[in-house]
Amino acid sequence: MAVVWGLLFLWSWPPFSTLVSGTLEWRYPVRKYPPADAQAIVVLAGGVYTHDRSEPEDLPTMSTFLRSNYAAWLYQNWKQLPIVVTGGASGPADVSLSGVMARLLEQRGIPSSMIWREDRSHSTYENALYSAELLRARGIDHIVLVTEAEHMLRAELSFRRQKLAVVPAPCCYRTLQFRGGWSEFLPQPRAISDSGDAMHEWIGVAWYFLSGKI
Question: 48 lies in a domain?
């Protein structure tokens, strides 16, 4: 029982969750702009909240919002490249993730003609597979890839597997949320979530490697 309580404490301890997240994030230095040129920006979907009677439209989850927001910022502050939004139908109502992302980008002032939708994918591997098809049809093989820093390793390897030259542009580093305040040395629910997400990513990387997807 003591071992179980010890593991639970560790799993919910911010320094531990930061360390586990860091094994994924620290390989990608924080940069204001992508370090190399490209022909298009590709942004991966996270999730969507399907609307109900209390909401007039489908809404992005925080991960989808943050990724899309950063892609829009790059378009407006770095280079005005076509933005590929990649994500298929999700949830019982089959809401199009790419459609929700396209709406977000248009609300940020991105011209609809510069937003290309890939709406068949249901996983990171399929994001890469179907986006590569769309890009190659337009003669594009150099991309800036936008997703959360913790997700970037699996995403980058998946896109490179499709013979694309990838410039990582990660956002939303979880390790940067740890600032060393006294309260961050107490167990917290967010640390449980962050630890779980990091383990999910490492399991995903291992599975993709063993199944030949990366």
Answer: yes
Number of domains the chain is built from: 1
| Closest-CA residue to 146 (of 95, 86, 201) | 86
Q: In this predicted model, what pLDDT tens digit does every residue of 4-55 receive, in sequence order?
A: 677 787 788 888 999 999 999 999 999 999 999 999 999 999 888 887 778 7
What's the CATH number where 200 sits?
Answer: 3.40.50.620
On whether residue 17 sits in a domain, the answer given is no
What is each CA distance from 26 to 9, 190, 193, in whole angstroms? 24, 20, 19
Instruction: Give the Cα separation of 27 and 163 in Å (integer).
Output: 21
Contacts of residue 182, Cβ cutoff 8 Å, sequence gap at least 6: none
Overall pTM > 0.85: yes
Handedness of CA 120, 123, 126, 127 (dihedral sign): positive
Q: Which two tokens stand for residue 91?
A: 């949830």
Distance between CA atoms of residues 203 and 206, nearest Å: 5
Q: Which amino acid is at 214?
A: I
The alpha-carbon radius of gyration of the chain (Å, integer) is 18
Answer yes or no: are the C-beta atoms of 87 and 44 closer than 8 Å.
yes
**C-alpha span between 20 and 57 (Å, rounded):** 36
Residues spanned by the domain of 54: 24-210
Residue 43 is predicted with a pLDDT of: 98
Residue with tokens 């337009």: 138
101 in any annotated domain: yes
